[in-house]
Amino acid sequence: MTRHDPLVYLLHMRDDARAALDMMQGKTRADLNETMLSYAVTFLVGRIDVTATKVPPSVREAYPNIPWGDILGVRDRILASEGARNDDVVWETVGVLSDLLPALEASIEDLKKVGDRYSGPATT
């Protein structure tokens, strides 16, 4: 596995999604008013977005079960208010993470079976 291997990117996305979901476990939208929690979750969500942009388009196309459209560009949507954080977008994205995580895990397992990581999903 090299640093530019799509599997590495998906693993980082998975780890950040898990961390964000763990932080938000049992929390409500109102809990994002707590600055440190909001900053931490915003950072993780933004990092998922940045990492997702590094996944080659061919891999994104091969794994349409990953909600790419909900993740790509989310950092800009969160900070679109002239640098002010939009906690509503953060909260909406946390909801997406519960769908993202199992999709990432399935795609990671599939990519582990593939020798050439750019060739697409494994076939059986």
3D structure, described in words:
There is one protein chain. The protein has about 120 residues and is mostly helical. Helices cover about 65% and strands about 0% of the residues. The protein has six helices and no strands. The protein has helices at about 5-25, 35-55, 55-60, 70, 75-80, 85-115. Helix 1 crosses helix 6 and helix 2 (about 35-55) packs across helix 6 (about 85-115). It is globular. It starts with 5 loop residues before the first helix and ends in an 11-residue tail after the last helix. The model has no long low-confidence stretch (mean pLDDT about 90).
User: What class would the helix/strand composition place it in?
Assistant: mainly alpha
- H and E order: HHHHHH
Strand fraction: under 5%
Largest sheet: none
Shape: globular
Helix amount, in percent? Answer: 55-70%
Give the end-to-end Cα distance, rounded to a whole number of Å: 22 Å
- In total, the number of strands is 0
Tally of individual helices: 6
Low-pLDDT residue spans: none
**What is the overall pLDDT average?**
88
Radius of gyration: 15 Å
List the helices and strands and how they pair.
Layout: H1 6-24, H2 35-54, H3 57-62, H4 68-71, H5 74-78, H6 87-113
Helix pairs in contact: 1-2, 1-6, 2-6
